[in-house]
Amino acid sequence: MRKKIAFFIFLGWILLLIGDRVDELRVYQGAQIAMYTIALASIVLLTGYSGQVSLGNGAMMAVGGYSAALTLNNLGSPVWVAFLMAIVASALFGAFLGTAAARLSGPYLAGTTLALAVGLPEIANQFNFLGGVPGLLFDVGFPPERLGEEFTQYKWFFWIASFIALLALFITSNILQSRYGRTWRAIRSSPLAAELSGINSSRMKILAFTISSALAGLAGAVMAMTISLVAPGAYTLTLSFALVTGAVLAGVSSLPGVVFGALILVAIPEVADVVATRFGGGENLNNYLPTLIVSVLLILSVIFTPNGPGEKLRRHHHKKKI
Amino acid sequence: MHKLLETLLIGLSTGSIYALMSIALVLVWRSTRVVNFAQAGQAMLSTYIGFEIASRTEIFWLGLAFAIAAGALLGAGVDFFFMRVLFKHAVSGAAAVVAPVIATLGLLGLIRSIVGLIWGGEFKSIKAPASTDGFTIGETTIPFSALNLLVIGTVFSILIVLAIVFQRTNLGLSLRASAYAPEIAQLAGIKTARIRTIGWAIAGGVGGVAGMLVTSNNFLSPYSLDLLLVFGFIAAVIGGLESMVGSVVGALILGIALTFILNYVGTSLVFIGGFVVLILVLLVKPDGIMAKGKARRA
Amino acid sequence: MIRKTGVKRTWLAATVLAVGSLIATSLPAHAETGVTGSEIKLGITLPLTGAASPGYNKIGNAMNAYFKYVNDNGGVYGRKVTLIQKNDEYSPQLSIAKTNELILKDKVFALVGPLGTANFTSVHKSVGIAKRGVPSLFLNTGFSGFANKKTYPTSFMILPSYAMEAKIISQFIKENHAGKKLGIVYQNDEFGIDGMGAFKAAGIKFDVSVPYTSGTQSAATAQTWVSQLAAGGAQVVVFFGVTSATAPLLAVAAGAKYSPQWILGSVGADPLTLRALGVPLAVLNGAQTPAGNPSPNDTSDEYVKQFQEINTKYNAGTAFDDYVLQGMNIGLMTVQGLRAAGPNPTRKGLIKAMETKGSTFASVAYSPLGYSQTSNVGHTGYYMAVMDANGDRKPFGGKVKLYTTDSGSGPVVVSTFKRPAMPAKGLPSNS
Prior knowledge:
The complex is a heterotrimer of chains A (322), B (298) and C (431).
Chain A: H1 2-21, H2 24-49, H3 57-75, H4 79-101, H5 106-119, E1 136-137, H6 153-177, H7 179-189, H8 191-196, H9 201-227, E2 229-230, H10 237-250, H11 257-278, H12 283-304, H13 308-321
Antiparallel strand pairs in A: 1-2
Helix pairs in contact in A: 1-6, 2-6, 2-9, 2-10, 2-11, 3-4, 3-5, 3-9, 4-9, 6-9, 7-9, 10-11, 11-12
Chain B: H1 2-32, H2 38-57, H3 60-88, H4 99-119, E1 134-137, E2 140-145, H5 146-168, H6 170-180, H7 182-187, H8 192-216, H9 226-239, H10 244-265, H11 270-284
Antiparallel strand pairs in B: 1-2
Helix pairs in contact in B: 1-5, 1-8, 1-9, 1-10, 2-3, 2-4, 2-8, 3-8, 5-6, 6-8, 9-10, 9-11, 10-11
Chain C: H1 2-29, E1 39-46, H2 59-72, E2 80-87, H3 92-105, E3 110-112, H4 117-132, E4 136-139, E5 155-157, H5 162-176, E6 182-187, H6 190-201, E7 208-212, H7 219-231, E8 236-240, H8 243-255, E9 261-264, H9 271-276, H10 281-284, E10 288-291, H11 302-314, H12 322-340, H13 347-357, E11 381-387, E12 393-395, E13 402-404, E14 413-415
Helix pairs in contact in C: 2-11, 2-12, 3-4, 5-6, 7-8, 11-12
């Protein structure tokens, strides 16, 4: 345990150093990577460990984002309270939904969460206090003055996001290594055997759903910070799909992999843009080449490294040892 | 009174198009155990082909025929060139539950970008094959038109044809047998791989019809069929994913429920309405309305 | 000692001179971000793909076409103007990511014509547009919230706000459709917040009011709108939404033989797009719409004629419609802004030039521009037009009757304002 704490503090120190040495664009992307890291961790916990497939993590992020924004705007509370509210609200919502979801398996759960991902953000349009299409502002404020003139807004986002991500990863990794993590894996690989050995599998599934939602909600609030806004247009079906994509690219059962998955999610659009510009020809080419590249990458990675590049390497290594 | 009747009729017309998409999804699910998100892409590409034919010849039905043919070819092609490769690299471990879904999502993106490269993002529209003038009952004209009627008619003719194929022909028997018990079917001399490809082809053709019918009343873009996929999938889940009858019933329930929400509650709640309908059904019957006990649970 | 000091002084003086002249000569080269000796780089984010893209995806290319035309004719003080278009698919996250790339990586001088209300709200806050002092000219949205010069000190609007539009429609209804049963179909987002408030303030009460949510528009939804309108017996129906919703609404209404007097809001009334979406022309015939610009088919208009020529040569294959006209006009105004900022433009200088000279810029729209030290409001009025059976629009009553107003509680007045003439050959020579 003490070793682990030391490791996370070391990671934090490295991030601090990196944050000081790269330009602003990269710092912003760093904050995004931190945000995606949390969101992907929520999928790894749910899908990789407890074996439930959710296509609705974008909706959970919306719950977190809106709770945080409402708390911050209406109660005038400190920022950390807003993040805490995001966790609490999305966990409650997740527990409620998980109770229904525990009875559902495979595609039924996928369908239900998909319907949620499409429907939930639109609710914001029905009620005025949720701000409609333009959304609600979410302003964590300027960095404290003692950090100096040179300290940019984006570096402040990066610091907050990285701190939260490290904390979230630390807690998640502890949960996954605990009795719960082992139980989830047991349920995933053999539900019947787990039931026979006295595990209440539906209660365990609800618990997984709740924790996963809490993580997603937290990610939603961090995203609201980086884009300074919550709006239905921010939590789209595309986001939900991107998260599942990132989780698969990361290797869906590996927690350290999520950092890699998050990195890819942030890097792909920029790389695709560069490639598209290089081959720059017709307008349609510029517009659709990025989608094409992402799709092909996705298909190839599912076919060749379905459990993520990390998994493949690990297995390779393992074989060598034997 | 008029409003109620109108809501039911329009719900029926909307739901019948969902039914086609959900049947396509069910056919693929039964044979391959994959929820095929690329179905929206396949239907879209088929519809673009149908659109080209229909706008050049000005004959909607010729466009529809081409869309069906293109959809069937595309469906068979996806199974043959894509799914077989995917399953050859049989996925194990934690990713097994998500990998096929992700693969079809990737395929959807691939088809979408190809369509975008060829046709661009502009809206296209297909001239409706029937009058969009509403029927008049007594003094009032309701917004339910000959086109709506034609949509319902076309969908139900296709359903009848499918029912005959599945119930009365050897092909249908093989399709059903290899869906429920692939090993036994194989032992009985059925070439399950080929039968599966045929199932994909039928699904593709049906998807093509759904795309053409939706578009005849609306417009076509690389994104225009996404919602059809979502609602088709919800309908299929309501119906229990295994049963074609169930998915049709699910689609009609969904279509009518959503139109009621639109007409009587408010437009912002339509999307979440789909979720509510789904969760209500699943809370009562976790395996969909056509589930018979737990035996067939996926 | 003394001599030594003298030598020292000479050295010192020489050094100062040398350094001074070095600084002096290097000053112009040490110019503002995004400006080099030969180029001024500008950026725009807009939806090039995705559900919201049709129509809007033409704006960037039209701006580019105009800039190419200017560049071929000497550029702006010898510099060529280049525009970097970034696709944000209308999602706020992408808008921010892409704007960050524009500002931090491509290092553009200014943003021109960014699209979308939620998008620009979040971009402005997150990217820190005001704090960085990045000029954001000619926002392609009519949300009146952007008219706050304190919050948006470096941003400038171009379109009249939705509130102004609603006030002008209200005035028009009072003048021409008094006593009739009124209905409205509106998109319940910023149109709603802006427009509905203004209708209410103007004392217009709708007998039937049908809100819809962006993205839900389809023939099936439109059928429910039409039945609600028809059931309520609305004789004059205002539509306040996007073109992809106008199309099914009009088509379904035609089918249901329901033909009220339509008043289509400016956002959803582009005839070319409507026709491409299969709206029967008979329905468009007679529809009334507030318009800021002349019809894109009106070749008797000097602006339209010049822009059409540029479009044919530099944007070949693109039909000349309202979106292209709007894009070209943003290009024209941008070039005037850059010229007004002087031969060595700075971001501060550009903003100052917009505040002090912006209101005199030539623009295709008929109404006056509201730019000043205290206001970033662009055009301030509309005239009412009638669509004919070809989808073309003509001024209501045969002659342009220009209404001007503000987004607040100010009155709607009939204006006799004469817009500045198109610069010769469409090439601004202002300074």
